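User: Quick one: structure for sequence A, then sequence B.

Assistant: Sequence A:
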Amino acid sequence: MAGLPTAALQLAGFLMAHAFWSASDLPPGGHYQPQSLCMRADGNRQLQTFDGATPKEQDDAARAFTSGGASQWPDCAIARQVKVGTPKGDVDALVIDIVQYGSNVMTVVQAFQPSPQGFRLLGDELMLGDNGPLPPLPAAQAAAAMREGAIDHPGLGDKWEQWEASRDPVSPLVQK
């Protein structure tokens, strides 16, 4: 975690906000179409959406980009929606891979409740490195940098603040 630049985390936070903005407007049963947001050293960004006939094909295209096309960029964040099985049933989650020059540096998982039930974030982001969850202090620093990036999204208005205010205190992805 020590080598991960704040800029990469803020980029991932910006994409996280953009993805949740899209997910919050989906109809019942809708699925977020995976996207990447990549940034050059000069700060220029490029947003890409991954196409496919099914959510699985879209997810496969995003995964292929993570290990392929992302290598052309100093910093990339790739977001996709998954279902995570828990003892209490499946939970929707946004998975964001943070990639630097083609190497996956970190994965962030944020559980959420889709919009038909009233969109909301479920607990804090889970910050995962090569060896599993990050220790508490680096995880908190990474989450703070991501939330700075989320707040910077110009199209959200006050949605992020509303989501933060109504965020569930504990993620359903954390085992007790």
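Sequence B:
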Amino acid sequence: MKTVIIGVDPGKAGFFTAFDGKEFQFYPMPEKKIETGKLLKSGKPQMKSVFDDHGLINVVAQIKMFYPTGTTFKVFIEEVGGRGGWSATNNFNFGYTAGLQKMVLLFLDPEPTMVRPQKWQSFMRQGYNTIKKASSTGKTMVNDSKAQALAIVENEYPQIDFRKTERSKVPDDNKIDSFLICLYGYRTTAIG
């Protein structure tokens, strides 16, 4: 029986990465366009992209259809909480979206593994020098987790395109994180 590891970077701009031991498949969080209530100079309604709750079901269905019947899925989701500096509304919306994502993923794995960022990051950084950046005050140096993650994927998987879309100019942090969470799951289970 085939086992597929799925790494999830939750949130509206997050990603799913699936790995069957041979190839990686990437699935962005679903979006839909809605009107903002404003008009463009042309008179057409201004549109914006938002997270698509119902599209999440389609993403899970796509993942299930891509792999043969009988495939077992093992899901690893980054466990994140509220963020200091965010408004109550932002924290609520993030929690709602992350909870919805976990609920839908139960269709793939009845017991997904929640993994703290510090845990998967420290595991994946083994053997790499720490990259630092100036803190928000500029008085101290702090770990630059995004630069560190980019350095790891560029070193180990230079052939993979980590841009969100073909039109994007830079690698997507959410896609990279879901990829590294997936690799963490693969490397820390009996499968890897």
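Residues 133 and 141 are 5 Å apart (CA to CA). The mean pLDDT is 89.

User: Thanks, that's what I needed.
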